Amino acid sequence: MKLLKGLGSGLCLTVLCVVVAPKAKADQWNEKTIITFSAPVEVPGVGQHVLPAGTYVFKIMDSNSDRTIVQIFNVREDHVYTTILAIPNYRLKATDKTVMTFRERPAGEPEALKAWFYPGREWGEEFVYERPRAIELAKETNEAILSTPVALDTASTDVLNTAPVEAVNPNGDVVNTATVVDAPPAETAAVAPAPAPAPAVAVAPVDVAQATLPKTASDLPLVGLAGLLMLGGGFALFGLSKLKA
What we know:
By secondary structure, the protein is an alpha+beta fold. 17% of the residues lie in helices and 28% in strands.
């Protein structure tokens, strides 16, 4: 009977250090991450399935499909060790560092890579194993494992884009993938009702008074006429006084 390691063995114990490589936002779409393992690690996918202790580069492949495909490179990024099919998995709290999770394995066996979470993001990548290997891991770990019935040893990227994804339990039965992948929590905040439209305001008709035209005629002619009359009256009085004298 195989003895399983302690519960802590599934919590990234084989990761010696993790360094996030890209600093430019333009590179964050592929989530490039440099990881150093201090012990061998088992990975699924097309290509090498056991990575020796060492440093590797994880990147999300640019794909035209809605699938997530992860590639593992050497440090120089001129060799691909394996290409892995993954589906999104959710965590309640994001961290500012990369998190790699592993499955418990029997003593002496390499840790099996489970999921990869990029810094600052709630969504991570849950890795999919080929069905026969997924059933073996399910029996060893006593938990459901994401799997695909497609043979991955020589599968192309196009095959990964369309490969069905399911989950298998320790009995080898297909179960709902929700038993493996966590969904985001449901929204609990009540949605505020939309404000009622403001009532229409009736605009009363406004009477516009006719404007009074400004005066355009001047009073100066009248003043001049009055002055002449007064002057003429003065001369007339002066003449009368001379006649009486």
